[in-house]
Design goal:
Blueprint (H helix, E strand, L loop, with lengths): L8 H4 L2 H4 L10 H8 L5 E2 L11 H10 L12 H11 L6 E4 L2 H12 L5 E5 L5 H8 L3 E5 L8 H7 L4 E7 L11 H11 L5 E5 L24 E6 L12 E4 L2 H8 L9 H11 L2 H24 L3 E2 L6 E5 L5 H9 L2 E2 L1 E2 L8 E5 L3 H18 L1
Parallel strand pairs: 1-11, 3-4, 3-5, 5-6, 6-7
Antiparallel strand pairs: 2-8, 7-8, 9-10, 10-13, 12-13
Length: about 375
């Protein structure tokens, strides 16, 4: 139903809220079925794990269902202890979030006052900008260089008003990383300023390049660093919405002051703890992604499409013109991918690596539509 907001809203709602464009998610299969009546569509748009969740996570949910009438322990001590053991840090270095993007919101709430700045890449996860603007901050966006985060330019963008720097390694939607040497120079430069580096490692488990920094190594150094990770990607728990942050205990204590009570539900906590210990499921997921990535990239290159080298579970490719018509043509073939217009990359499409049959269906649909849309 079309709705027109009252005129007085302009005077009652903060201008920085009115200026925020809504987040654009990947189109769900059910929505495509309702709109176009296409049965058996596949979704390769949101970087989900096509293998689904770990069997151990499913069992943990089933076992906990009987306790669903009881609130969970608010801070999630058991899951935090499991994560802490994995990273060899104390449990009070861990905070849980209803997805890692909720922790980004906590960070902006604590560190930003109106008019203060957060530096981020221009073509990156839109929640960095949304969280910044939601608290009256200014998002300072720095262009990528060869589809990679330009750390030197980001460092130069820092001013006395900068309070936060958001950096994703790998970056979404490009899948690109930075080298350890580049990152260490970046950290050294930032340590001269009084700010927090938020390192988003949502896709870190997929990285095979050895010369890639791991945020855990930089927690506790002269520069305050908060490392964000999630159970939505390699662990296949996107629907349960559970992420976590690793940082100095003093930082976690500050964030807990604005963390909503019971923000991560009990089923999510139980499933995440079980999933973290299912090494075999993680290995199966990595094998699927790496094999599928090689196949998709090879087929895209054979079709003359430029791919962006990715260390995540997706690959983006670019056309010579706006890729939205190609995206829409693929929808009509029952294949949901992600047009990157909302990321400021109108000529590009991102496709999640799925199971073999899903990858083949995407390639065949692309072969059918590309000659008409190139």
């Amino acid at each position: 139903m079309e709705s027109k907001r009252p005129a007085w809203i302009e005077q009652r709602v903060s201008s920085h809220i009115l200026s925020i464009p809504p987040y654009v998610p990947g189109k769900p299969v059910a929505e495509l079925t309702r709109e176009l009546g296409i049965p058996e569509a596949i979704k390769l748009a949101s970087n989900e794990n096509s293998l689904g969740p770990s069997p151990l996570a499913i069992k943990a949910i089933e076992d906990y269902l009987i306790h669903s009438s009881v609130y969970p322990e608010s801070s999630g001590p058991e899951l935090r202890s499991t994560i802490a053991s994995r990273f060899h840090v104390p449990p009070d270095s861990i905070i849980l979030g209803n997805g890692s993007d909720e922790i980004m919101e906590m960070v902006a709430h604590v560190f930003l006052q109106p008019g203060e700045e957060a530096v981020m890449a221009e073509n990156a996860f839109s929640m960095y900008r949304i969280c910044t603007q939601a608290f009256g901050g200014k998002a300072v966006r720095v262009a990528l260089r060869d589809y990679r985060s330009d750390l030197a330019a980001m460092a130069e963008a820092v001013t006395e008003r900068t309070r936060l720097v958001f950096l994703a390694v790998p970056n979404n939607p490009t899948g690109t990383i930075v080298s350890r040497g580049e990152f260490e120079s970046f950290v050294q430069h930032l340590s001269k300023s009084r700010l927090l580096l938020v390192l988003d490692e949502a896709y870190r488990e997929f990285v095979s390049e050895l010369d890639c920094p791991s945020g855990r190594d930089y927690v506790g150094g002269p520069l305050p660093v908060l490392v964000l990770r999630t159970f939505s990607k390699i662990y296949g728990l996107a629907g349960l919405r559970v992420g976590y942050g690793i940082g100095d205990p003093w930082l976690i204590e500050l964030l807990n002051r604005v963390r909503p009570p019971f923000n991560v539900n009990a089923l999510a906590q139980a499933a995440a703890a079980a999933a973290l210990n299912d090494v075999e499921h993680v290995e199966r997921s990595l094998t699927m992604v790496r094999s599928g990535m090689e196949y998709i990239v090879r087929k895209l290159n054979e079709m003359g499409l430029k791919t962006i080298p990715s260390q995540a579970n997706f690959v983006s490719f670019c056309c010579s013109t706006d890729a939205k018509p190609l995206y829409e043509a693929l929808l009509r073939e029952g294949v949901i991918v992600r047009h990157l217009g909302s990321f400021g990359m109108e000529k590009c499409i991102r496709v999640t690596v799925g199971r073999d049959a899903e990858n083949r269906r995407f390639v065949e649909a692309l072969k059918e539509t590309l000659p008409r849309r190139r």
